[in-house]
Amino acid sequence: MTEFQDQLKNSRERDKKEFLTSPKFAEIRTLYRGNFEKITELIRRYGRRQAIEDIANLAETTFRPSIYENLLFLQEINGAIRDQDLTLDDF
Question: pTM score, two decimals?
Answer without folding.
Answer: 0.89
